[in-house]
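3.2 Worked example (two chains)
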Amino acid sequence: MANSAQESIQISDDEVFRRKLLMDGDGMGDERRLTLLLRSFANWCDNKYDSEEQIILGYEGLITSLENCELLMSKSHQAQLANKREIQNYEELECQIKRKIAEMQESILKKKEELKEAKKIREQKQKYDALAKIIIKLPDRKETEIKLKALNEEIEDLAESKKQLESKLETRHKELRVLLSAAASLKETLKEEESSTMME
């Protein structure tokens, strides 16, 4: 029965090496536990003169140690998976942060353009307000048209007055020429009469 128990727990060298690598991943004493397990297994195999009860107890102890090692190996494997998930989460978080930074940079550029446009609009509004103040001070169109009409009428009156004055002036010139001609004739007549008187 001891031989059958020993045969049932025989493990190949490759399997032992594989489990050794799996259990020695985190450096938390797994190598030492595996060494103790292998040493216990070797001692159990060498105890040929033990009773069947001692062999069974040794077998059960080895199974318990093996289960503990497998449990630790499973925990180590789960820790590795958790680390991988954590690394993946960090990588995803890094991608999200980079994307957010890119979005913020794009938003900043957009806000700068909006600010530039707002400044331009404000400057134009200030110019429009200044122009509106000037326009408000000017008379309205109806009032301007009335004043313009009155001014045109005044110009027409002045033109008519000028025409009349020019006509009167022309008449006075004609009268003056007639008067000068008459004065010259009278002077000539007086000279002739004076000459006749002196001859007598």
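3.2.1 Second chain
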Amino acid sequence: NDNSVYLGMIWDQAWRMWNTHYLYMGFYTSCYFSGRTFRKLWHEGSVKYFWRLGARNTLVSNFCLTLGERMPPERQLFLGGINAIRGLEEKQLVGQNRWILNLEDRFFTNLNLFDFYLGGIFFIDIGNIWFSTSDFDWKSTCASAGFGLRLGNSRVYGSKVTRLDFAFPIHGPVKFQVCFATGQFFGAFKSLSYINPFPRLFGEE
């Protein structure tokens, strides 16, 4: 029988700061016990900032800090993958603590191809991962930069965009990588209500 007990807590909130500036903050913590043994403790905080430069252009940033303690091997964190640092393989770097900073300039054009609007991004990804405080080293920070293409459905509001990103190495064991997926690299607007309605964009924010 599985005698594990999971405990978790989540808090998030979003604000419209000014007419075209939006802020999201979230915090998540969890732990679990197996019998009488404490197995894992995990805290994660994130901040996302969105600045609408125009009807089809948004500057976005995402900072996420995750701190783990006594995490079993199957629960370790990864720094790579399509939702962390583009240019790193998913399980290339492993640890119990990490921080990630993503910056993107997202835009859509007036070009319509079969009910899909063509868009693009320029991005920078920076992050680090470590097991304990004594292991942390700023020199191990990884960084990549690149550009990508976006397709947003002009008929279905809030539908997921299709993305194709090209990542180039800046620092660390990052390599050239082509990433294909659906949905924005990170977002907040699709699931949260803001004080004032957010202006429509093609695809989810």
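3.3 Remarks
The CA atoms of residues 146 and 167 lie 5 Å apart.
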